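Question (not urgent): is this output format expected?
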Amino acid sequence: MRESDNPCMNCGACCAWFRVSFYWAEGDDGGGIVPHELTEPLTPFLRCMAGTNDKKPRCRALDGEVGSSVHCSIYAARPSPCREFIRTGEQGQANDACDRARAAYGLPPLPLNAPGRPLKNETRTNMTAGCQRSD
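Got this back:
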């Protein structure tokens, strides 16, 4: 299957609906891999992806139009909440956070049997870790 067949490549709603917060050391200036110039401080121990703490959140690493054709410009270096977010239909599970983000953009929930698979180099352990609405 081509990566473009993954439903996330035609969505991006989660990247433009939630604040993506994570431990500061995930930044490349703290020994991690997330480009620090695309992050903002939240607390002395937490940071978030730039743009996701705004009143109308949208991750600055997201390229393209939500609901059409999108991709993460730092996909290989994205933070843990992005790596752990499971879209509805993946592993046959529903994810209310995915459904809410899609609904905010007028997109229907993905079916539980949605085609697609995790993109290469993904590990998933928690459906909504670090993802919060910022309003």
